[in-house]
Prior knowledge:
By secondary structure, this protein is of the alpha/beta class. The protein has a single domain (16-148), classed as P-loop containing nucleotide triphosphate hydrolases (Rossmann fold, 3-Layer(aba) Sandwich). Helix content is 20%, strand content 25%. It is built from three helices and seven strands, in the order βαβαββαβββ. It has helices at residues 20-33, 50-61, 104-109, and strands spanning 17-18, 38-43, 75-78, 85-89, 113-117, 130-137, 140-148. It has a seven-stranded mixed beta sheet with strand order 1-7-6-2-5-4-3.
Amino acid sequence: MTRFDLVPPLAADGHLALTERELTDWGRRLGRQIDPPLVITIDGDLGAGKTTLARAICEGYGVTEEVTSPTFAIVHAYDAPKSPVHHVDLYRLDDAKGLQNIGWDDLVQADALLIIEWPERAGQLLPPHLPIQLRQVPGDASHRVLIAGGQTEYRSGTP
């Protein structure tokens, strides 16, 4: 079933570049509509808005505490009415070998919402997921291109 209410604003008019406010609104709507267990991956360059989107998804999902980047802690856990939320940032891991040190198996098997930034670092250990990509618009720092859905397993080098 297609969820037309999750299509980014103006997509029908060929406008896929979102402002931060539009990205945040979309993330909140997504968060309100999803149920656990679910793994969401957010892929994008530094500064693309991954944590902004993760924060919005968490807000829509019901997280009431401040959602911050887990870059240094690697994993942040939050409570929400539907289930726990685990926000993971794999940026500081060199490869999938480091996953055992963060309790990866427990995270991906939990009845929870799992949001993963820098998913390519998990390699073949990445479970089935809802992939989201954020891309910066060249020459336009105020907009991001959002691509959601599609392929559910990560393959290195696949856009």
